[in-house]
Amino acid sequence: MGSPAVNSENIWDVYQELLAQFEQLDDAVDFIEECEIYLAMLEAQINNEENLAPVGKDLLGGPENPATDSAYYMGGVNNGLGLGKSPQLPAFGSD
User: What is the residue range of 69's domain?
Assistant: First the structure.
């Protein structure tokens, strides 16, 4: 746009050009604000992911990390008896 000489013949053209430039500036400010919000959301998501337990890692004491006697924690499966074992139920009628 430069520095045009403003007179009665071109005042409307100068006004429209200035208005268009200010509107573009408003759009740029809106865009920057939207980018800042998006970046803040990404940062919050990254911070949340850092606080989560790592995916794919088993709890300590599982089958991959047994005790010295080969026992390991199975998470209370089947009342603590593990997989494939049945609890011994009392015989019917015995108290």
Answer: 57-82
Q: Give the list of residues 6+ apart from residue 62 with CB closer than 8 angstroms, or none.
A: 72, 73, 74
pLDDT digit string (tens) for 9-38?
889 999 999 899 888 888 888 899 999 999
In a domain, 22, yes or no: yes
- Contact residues for 91 (Cβ-Cβ < 8 A; gap 6+): none
- Kindly state whether residue 93 falls inside one of the protein's structural domains: no
pLDDT interval class at 91 (50, 70, 90): confident
Instruction: Assess if residue 36 is contained within a domain.
Output: yes
Q: Are 63 and 57 in contact (CB under 8 A)?
A: no
Same domain, 43 and 9: yes
Q: How many residues does the chain have?
A: 95
Return d(Cα 42, Cα 46) in angstroms, integer: 6
